[in-house]
Design brief:
Blueprint lengths: L4 E5 L3 H13 L4 E5 L2 H10 L4 E5 L7 H9 L6 E5 L4 H9 L4 E4 L4 H20 L7 E3 L3 E4 L4 E4 L2 E3 L3 H12 L7 H8 L8 H15 L9 E4 L3 E4 L9
Parallel strand pairs: 1-2, 1-3, 3-4, 4-5
Antiparallel strand pairs: 6-7, 7-8, 8-9, 10-11
Helix pairs in contact: 1-5, 6-8, 7-8
């Protein structure tokens, strides 16, 4: 984990210095910085980062738009760090490709803990290889575990890291119901500071990819009061 390459994007140099100090104390050796969207895009083009911490309020480009552009070239976890506290901003950040969201003012140790949790989950996903099954084929879509690819109706579909981890978890446990808190702990690894919006947004994004009609899902369904499950065959349309 300490060998992971991190990119911190924020125009507050004091904040960057503080996070760098804490991350260095935790043993991280490769921490890079960018104070603008342009600089961040340039760095991502040149370096394969393992995680990006991204401020929304940047001087040259809105952080949401920067996230969209980053998602065109990388699927690594993106953690939003921002002073904007409205729920719609948080939902927007998660919907367009973010994996986590922390509002200012924040406890710096929480930021470090969330970074480590994201990297830990990413590392576990890469290291856990089931030799008997590397492709999950559900007919309308296929998930290629080792290759990190999602195919829907014969077309490859972009699937960022946390979406892929969530879909993989559901594919590995078809027809089983999981509560929102259990899903959060499995995928994000921080039960005590999670919230259900994160899971719900990622479920919605997956439905937009694999469902014919995301508003009437046939694969990933909600069991009221219990949680979500992925069906091994699509739910029949009610007649």
């Amino acid at each position: 984990m300490v060998d992971s390459r991190l990119l911190l994007v924020d125009d507050e140099t004091g904040l960057l210095d503080m996070l760098n100090y804490l991350l260095t104390k935790e043993g991280f050796k490769h921490v890079s910085f960018a104070t603008s969207a342009k600089e961040a895009l340039d760095r991502v083009q040149k370096t394969d980062f393992d995680l990006i911490v991204l401020d929304i309020m940047l001087p040259d480009l809105d952080g949401f738009e920067l996230c969209r552009r980053l998602r065109e070239v990388t699927i690594v976890p993106i953690l939003f760090l921002t002073a904007r506290t409205m729920d719609m901003d948080k939902i927007m950040g998660l919907t367009i490709g973010g994996d986590d969201y922390i509002t200012k003012p924040f406890n710096p140790l929480e930021v470090v803990a969330r970074i480590k949790a994201q990297l830990r989950r990413q590392s576990l996903t890469k290291s856990q290889r089931a030799p008997d099954k590397e492709v999950y084929d559900f007919g309308a879509f296929q998930l290629f575990k080792q290759e990190g690819r999602l195919m829907v109706n014969g077309q490859e579909v972009s699937c960022p890291a946390k979406e892929f981890e969530l879909l993989l978890f559901l594919c590995e446990h078809p027809n089983q119901i999981f509560s929102i808190s259990h899903i959060y702990e499995q995928i994000w690894g921080l039960e005590s500071i999670g919230d259900e919006n994160t899971v719900m947004v990622h479920i919605r994004r997956l439905r937009q990819k694999i469902e014919k009609n995301p508003n009437d899902p046939k694969w990933i369904i909600n069991i009221r009061g219990m949680g979500y499950k992925l069906l091994s065959s699509p739910k029949e349309t009610d007649k």
